[in-house]
Queue: 4 jobs
Job 1
Amino acid sequence: MSAWTCTLSSPSPLQHSFTQNPATSETPSSAQWIDTLRSQVRLNCFKEAIFTYIRMNVEGIRPDNFVFPAVLKAATGLQDLNLGKQIHGSVVKFGYDTSSVTVSNSLIHLFGRCGGSIHDVYKVFDRITERDQVSWNSLINALCKFDKWELALEAFRLMGLDGFEASSFTLVSMALACSNLPRTDGLRIGKQVHGYSLRIDDRRTYTNNALMSMYAKLGRVDDSRAVFELFADRDIVSWNTIISSFSQNDRFREALDNFGVMIREEIKPDRVTISSVVPACSHLALLDVGKQIHCYVLKNDDLIGNSFVDSSLVDMYCNCQQVENGRRVFDSALKRSIGIWNAMLAGYTQNGFFKEALMLFTEMMEFSGLSPNPTTVASVLPACVHCEAFSLKEVIHGMVAVFDGGLKFGRQCCVQGVA
């Protein structure tokens, strides 16, 4: 971990708290080091926490089952897998991989969050001699991070056989796993998860939010709405989930109606709300409503410059044949993600501005530093057909061939007379 010693900034006030006092020649005790480290982690001062951990080792302070969970959380917060593996080596060296369930749980969480392997996760989990509920939840959560939905469900079954009841954290992971299964299986198992939550009387907001999202992703928007209407402690995530559920399932009027109720209940919209409700204005051709939402965005600093919000506004204006307004939003965007480029390209093409689409595509290729994706190609390909002088047709043809499913898309365009 020596690399960290040269990348850290100057010590924070917390670090100064354990520096030796020349007047008294007192050296901080082990407890003071640990308190400093844990305080830094609680304040999300992760680099400072790693600095403290290194200093502890230099001073000969042996890390224990209080130090390792804190420093592993710091490594997780920094998304530094290599650092986490070095700390794991120390965990094994001092025997805490088998003697402390808290340390092991922290390791599982690190590997799940920082891109470790399933092998890493199972290796730690299998060495835990006395697992607790957190151990199982950490395993299930890690498997979900790896998109191993069936394995997560199997771990849930084994958790029950091991005598542990699911918590809200378990149910949230299970709802996520079910939402990523084939629709029939996901709905069947998802209803069982929902029934389980009712049996243990779990009324927590984030559990209900997860169930709402699960039903929506499985195409059961009315079931999502039923969950929404049955609990009172709704938060911004609850409202965003129900609005996006309607919007993503082409029930745009209901999305707008719920947005109106949300405003009347004085729930402040965030970027997810705006990104979900603006497409409803677009599909219903409600330009005036869309402009009102745009005005709201311009009055809120935390929404200005958000790439998702900007992309949805560009799309809305272009779908309402207000291409110039869409371009103004594009030009004023503080950060241009691939999404906003695609929205503007599609807006030009759909409105017959083929030359402008190709000029924008050329600008994107030369100056944005972004790589086109299949959506980009799908947006610009029709413009190529209408501009015979465009010199990059072979480049775009190559992109179509490279992207998964691109050739199929190209043949469909030919059949439909687009290419």
Job 2
Amino acid sequence: MASRTYADAVAALNTLQTNFAIVDAIRNSGKGMNKNSIPEMVEWCRRIGYEPSDFNRLNAIHIAGTKGKGSTSAFISSMLGQYRFPSTRKPERPLLRKIGLYTSPHLRYVRERIQINNQPLSEEAFARYFFETWDRLEEAARAKGEPPDTTAKPGYFRFLTLMAYHTYMSEGVDTAITECGIGGEYDSTNVLVKPTVTGITSLGIDHTAMLGNTVEEIAWHKGGIMKASAPCFTAPQPPAAIEVLQKRADEVPTKLHVVGRNPLLEDVKLGLAADFQKINASLAVAIADAHLVALGQEDRKRHDDVLPPEFIRGLEEVRWPGRCETRREKNMAWHIDGGHTLESIEVAGSWFASQIPPARSRKRTRILLFNQQTRDANALAKALHRTLASALQNEQPFTHAVFCTNMTFREEGYRPDLMSMNTSAAAAEKLDVQRGLAETWRGIDPQTIVEVKLSIEEAVRWCKDVAGVEKGDAEGEVMVLVTGSVHLVGGFLEVLETGKA
């Protein structure tokens, strides 16, 4: 491969995506997660020059859960980031110089998944570590007499996990906050041998083809990240889930701590909006605290009646685009949330309802921009309507609704970082899901003006036309809720920031 730019890296990475036919077959097979995935991942690690125990140097914090994983990880990273500055620590104490954050999925750029000190890798750094990982895998394949093509490399997420660990090892990262992809027990991130602490965010029903149909089955998978060397902290869960998590903790063995809403956070203005983030922040505080104790940054656990100033600053300064985020432009307020499960879509609906001023009458324009391509889209749409209708005391939630695919632009298609092959291209082109969503919404609320668009670009333009931004005839500020998919939100931000709609 002659050229080694960031664009080349993204193009090569996209060749490792699993196509829709294979993903769909796995979903329909009922076989669940690959029980050989961890031994396979260990072998991939060895092919790029690492034993899993080597990653002990990263002082990893491992996070699993159904919802809130990204926000909780961001809170932890932001709080620990405050300890990088000499003014906050005693001179004789070692500083946290480099803090890694590995999350998924990304919004606009794949390099967002691998961060150091709360900044995505630069394009140059991403390309360098990408091709170092790529080349090591090809060299190992040749040494074993295997063809050095894509069959000698793991899939998309596994590759990025390998690359993240390689990046953090090469950069001398002091702490690596690592978010699971799917589940925990068989997730590719779970080659970590000795994390300092593990955390489990709120559980719900998601990825049922791989994790099971009950909260007990899902809790079993998430509990697989527990390690004997590390305490585990969990957000409040249904009793059945707690029972499973406690059993897993006893088997490891380790100590399981259930973290309720921290009253010390009530007066803290979190950098992430929405009241439910107090739950994620409470869990993050407990995890960050335990991590600092494990590293010797604190002599003992802090008192429960005070938050360190570093924690408060970190909680206030955290930024996590696409989660309960509001962006404003002329006459319009875009309310953006990547909620894509039943639980998270209800949370997004409650947050949006809380943003509607009491004086706003039902005559004011409110628009829904929605898509979900792979889950039960109609169930999500119904849950969103039900949540908003209840919060607004049966007032019509939206005057307008537009359903589109995750295609970024009408002419250019997907930008490379947002390319996804694990949904049906044929169904997307025919707008099958979108037409189904439109019919579902008309059935729920016949008064809503409903539209279907192929691309996010066209959907955004339609919203602006409805709002009368171009004509300047919009009365007051038109509110738009963009939700249903992280991929939709990423494409939406790309459209909005490039000004192509």
Job 3
Amino acid sequence: MARDSCLARITAGVAIGGAVGGAVGAVYGTYEAVRFKVPGLLKIRYIGQTTLGSAAIFGLFLGAGSLIHCGKSY
């Protein structure tokens, strides 16, 4: 598989989107858990759900954007 193949670009887009989305989700989840005074160990669950949800959505969108860009040659 060539380094510049479409599948490699999509995979890289999903990975980068997941990393950025996870970081943003962790920060936002922590802020919301503290703001709404989520009790005890539920904070960890809330932060985890926010992190995974944000990583999945952002990774999906960046992967879709990479797929759209695959067909274009500049």
Job 4
Amino acid sequence: MAQFQKGLKNILQKHPNDVVFLSALRTAITRSFKGGLRNAYPEQMLATVLRATLTQNPNVPPSAIQDVAVGTVLSELGGSKAARMALNHVGYPSSTSLYTVNRACASSLQAITTIADSIAVGRIDVGIGAGMESMTRNYGSKAVPTQLWPELKESGVKDARDCIMPMGITSENVAERYGISRADQDAFGAASHIHASKAQKDGLFDKEIVPVSVTNPPGKGDGDGSPTPQPSETVKVSKDDGIRHNASTESMAKLKPVFKEAGTTTAGNSSQISDGAAASLMMRRSTANSLGLSSSIKGKFAGATVVGVAPDEMGIGPAYAIPALLSSLEINKEDVGVWEINEAFASQALYCVRRLGLDKALQEGRINPRGGAIALGHPLGATGGRMVSTILSEMGRGGLGDVGVVSMCVGTGMGMAGLIVRE
């Protein structure tokens, strides 16, 4: 225990080589196919948050930003060309390099981590970890390969075959194997919407969201036989639009299972497919000090860990990634004030909470206090970045403390967790 107390003390101290956040911005997260960003391109959303990063950090010259990592899962050609074009389009010089990262649901947390690692080892001084995803445009195959080596589909190794198991079936597996009831899942789902609704009405998301200007094509009219076409219009999208403001456990209980006839996973206790983007500006603390930006530091990135789990119950990943992270940093779960655990499904999120012994934290409103992916949505490549922007603004509010953990399960069977310290 004394050793772990030393670990916490070390994490809370300020060191010249700390990797710190200067900003963590995101777009609104909106419903795919029906939401406000349905007509936006992933690289358009990325361009918006990259431009806003420069605007909100006027004392950081664009030429000082050396490398940008962008998490994306579904974009054409891995998103690398479009993302690079977006970077240059909004004012970054050609000397700023860029690459994309795909670790499924953890892609943008991985992007943040790789930039942080590059800063930590001295490869760069300043970088951006970002993420983008338009599931409206790119979710046609349901994130399953359309051209796959046939031998893998018939592999004698179950874990290999299970990597393309529908995510909803993995949710059902977790619920069945670990006794997560339908009633508990519905209550968890309703709570996500209730928390998110309150946070939105209280304006708690406003500072982290950058509006996106979207041009919607002409409408088809009123459908009465002699439609009057509506002209195209440009709107600014600045609100998460997947939140059910009237959600309740009772309303959730009326929804039918989606993946198995007698299952417990429904549209109400699962994450939404969504569109969005996020970007975090990071640098070495000594660099921030030399640029006169000490007072602008929002927090620091203390580390991240990835673990593997069985693909057919991929949702349990955080239950293993979080202990590995805390152990590596020599701190206890009691040292963590607020948790962002991605709600891919209520079944897996609840399992992780229970296995980690975080039931009290859940009751106290310290897990996803502003709601999670069930209410806000899960734009695969941008989710980690969204969670980082939210936790940075949430930590310290209402006595939640200055240490936070971001974690998510990862398709094909992984879990990732990162630790953030508020300045």
